[in-house]
């Protein structure tokens, strides 16, 4: 019997996911709350953890497991999309993006720390939605509006 060791990227993603769960547990004891949203649609299994202080979203952790066959796409198409997203987020304050790709699946992990980020820049890059300039501008990402937006695209709140 041979045992294969997971690739370095897969180990890093697993560590990131474990850190996400541990961090969420620790944060909920510090006057913050965490809400976990999940979906499994069209070959993409996605999990979002939203960490907030009151109605102000302070951190967002997301992971996606993409099955190319179930999604009906080629590995090259996904690799191209991942590369484009990596280039878009590279060097953006408050955003960390990691990924691993093989012939059948891709794993993505995104972490956004809103207190460190320029919200107008995140909107410009289409990472978040909302009005962060002009007369109706807000200086934070609203937790309930984020939950509502995720629910509209098929996410459900996990208890």
Annotation keywords:
159 residues, alpha+beta, YehR-like fold, seven-stranded antiparallel β-sheet, 7 strands
Q: How many structural domains are formed by the residues?
A: 1
Radius of gyration: 17 Å
* Tertiary shape: globular
User: How would you classify the quaternary structure?
Assistant: single chain
Largest sheet, in brief, is: 7 strands, antiparallel
Going by CATH, what is the homologous superfamily?
YehR-like
- Find the CATH topology: YehR-like fold
The average pLDDT is 83
Report the end-to-end length measured between terminal Cα atoms. 40 Å
The CATH architecture is 2-Layer Sandwich
Structural class: alpha+beta
Share of helical residues: 25-40%
CATH class: Alpha Beta
Instruction: Please provide the ordered H/E string of secondary-structure elements.
Output: HEEEHHEEHEHE
- Low-confidence segments, ≥5 residues, pLDDT <50? 24-28
Sheet-strand content, in percent, reads 25-35%
Q: Write down how many β-strands occur, each being a DSSP E stretch of 2 or more residues.
A: 7
């Amino acid at each position: 019997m041979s045992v294969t060791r997971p690739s370095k990227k897969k180990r890093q993603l697993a560590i990131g996911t474990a850190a996400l769960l541990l961090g969420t547990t620790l944060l909920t004891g510090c006057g913050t709350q965490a809400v976990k949203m999940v979906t499994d649609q069209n070959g993409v299994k996605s999990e979002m953890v939203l960490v907030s202080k009151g109605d102000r979203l302070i951190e967002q952790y997301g992971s996606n497991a993409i099955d190319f066959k179930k999604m009906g796409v080629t590995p090259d198409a996904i690799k191209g999309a991942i590369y484009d997203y990596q280039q878009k987020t590279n060097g953006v304050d408050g955003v960390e993006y990691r990924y691993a790709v093989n012939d059948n699946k891709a794993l993505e992990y995104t972490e956004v720390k809103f207190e460190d980020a320029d919200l107008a820049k995140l909107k410009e890059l289409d990472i978040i939605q909302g009005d962060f300039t002009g007369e109706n501008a807000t200086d934070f990402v609203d937790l309930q509006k984020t939950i509502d937006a995720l629910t509209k695209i098929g996410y459900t709140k996990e208890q």
